[in-house]
Amino acid sequence: MSDVLSPQKTSAAAPPRVGFVSLGCPKALTDSELILTQLSAEGYQTSKTYEGADIVIVNTCGFIDDAVRESLDTIGEALAGNGKVIVTGCLGARTGEGGENLVRKMHPSVLAVTGPHATQEVMDAVHLNLPKPHDPFIDLMPNSFGEAGIKLTPRHYAYLKISEGCNHRCTFCIIPSMRGDLVSRPIGDVLKEARALFEGGVKELLVISQDTSAYGVDVKYRTGFYEGRPIRTRMLDLVQALGEIAEPYGAWVRLHYVYPYPSVDEVIPLMAQGLALPYLDVPFQHSHPDVLRRMKRPASGEKNLERIERWREACPELVVRSTFIAGFPGETEQEFQHLLDFVQEAGIDRAGCFAYSAIDGAVANEIPGMLPIEVREERRSRFMAVAEQVSADRLRRRVGATMQVLVDSAPALGRKGGVGRTYADAPEIDGVVRLLPPLKASKTLKVGEFTRASIVSTDGHDLVAQPI
Ligand code: SF4
User: What GO terms describe the biological role, i.e. biological process, of this protein (predicted)?
Assistant: First the structure.
């Protein structure tokens, strides 16, 4: 059975109880946090089991076939274990053949289905099926979790979603059809949430969106306000302000989903100054200009190798993470070779790769030259062999260095060691630092605190380090 989530804080009100399962990417996780915050503010309690809940909400992912399968299976489990199920998230927005809603087709007994980012619609469905408890104390109480709301991540790191949707139309992607065009959150709200998170103990803020570099495009970079100060709705101003807010808390700001537009060049000096981590998650997907054009990628005309070189000149510590697709329709062996050369020459620190898989409703399915699955898989393995070599070489350069490590796990105050991450490792997607037991008896490790550590060796994608 999938774990039914229980947030860190619950209200003191009596049941009704809601079970919640959150699947998918960090953007889906932030949707779950918004719904759980609202449920809790209204006095609903959460249940860790299907059986103990009066109703279950499943937040789904609909991006690739495996995610669709997992989501449909989870809805089936929730129906079997509880019977009253509300479905939300990306899969909720997908239609099957004949234009019928996919979730309703596969599970006709669900109570309601919504798309992603639909807190109000989900709450309406909850109210209809499980009336809101009346508690005079709670009804009069302001949201006790402040601007940040409930978080499903560990206390010391949190995702900060700055926008919803996307204006691009990459041919392999159906996200815009599920999440709509770009809508940037007001910069004042984003900064207020960031501050509340730092106040609440967050030591690492992960900025997410579908396209972080496009922040503010939809509102023409309008000027907003934070604490009475005018500030433009623009990535550069956002990063500068986040860095300044994080500084007194000694917290990290990490940027995800940044496209290699010329405007990103201006953000690199902020990294060199320490306002944001020198880490960029740039989903290049490919390197060959013809493949990028067929993919209709944002910034496909940019000279990415030169750009990365310039970024590294301005900020030598910069770590670049990226994702790629091998075996895109029509990809020739020569185009694929271009990709392998790019990963080596660009020195991509961390790379993930999918073999192209046709997603229902994606325009790329119509592109001539679909490659046999064996070729796509074989190219993916060849890609990963090269990318892992590059990654291992770059990782080895850290041996002997002293680095700041954020501790994620440290049983018994770290007496037997622990696990953490440096600025080069985002949670869940990159490697970790395996911390050895401290040499001094007085030295302890605590989750959510930083320690300095001397890197002694590498172990696959991970580092081994001695806390000092
Ligand atoms: S940039 Fe492309 S891949 Fe990313 S969400 Fe937008 S359309 Fe999809």
Answer: tRNA modification
Query: 3-state class of 440 per DSSP?
Result: coil
Query: Can you list the positions of beta strands (E) in 98-170?
Result: 112-113, 157-161, 163-164
258 lines ligand 1 (CB under 6 A): no
The answer to whether position 232 is within a domain reads: yes
Instruction: Mark whether 216 and 258 lie in a shared domain.
Output: yes
pLDDT value, residue 407: 97
> Residue 353, annotated ligand binder?
no
CATH number at residue 437: 2.40.50.140
> Closest ligand 1 atom, CA of 211?
1
Q: How far is CA 324 from CA 27, 179, 354, in A?
A: 20, 22, 6
| Tally of structural domains, the chain | 3
CATH number at residue 73: 3.40.50.12160
pLDDT (0 to 100) of residue 100: 83
Please identify, by atom number, the ligand 1 atom nearest to the C-alpha of residue 167: 6
Give the C-alpha separation, 195 to 210, whole Å.
Answer: 22
pLDDT of residue 10: 37
**pLDDT for 93:** 87
Dihedrals phi, psi of 19, to nearest 5 degrees: -90, 145
Instruction: Examine the domain organization and report whether 163 and 270 are in the same domain.
Output: yes
Residue 141 is predicted with a pLDDT of 37
Res 49: pLDDT: 92
- Full domain range(s) for residue 240: 157-397
How far lies 300's CA from each of 61, 176, 209, 271, 287, in Å? 27, 18, 19, 24, 9
Positions of the chain with pLDDT lower than 50, given as ranges: 1-3, 6-13, 136-145
Report pLDDT for 147: 65
Q: How far apart are the first and last CA of the chain?
A: 42
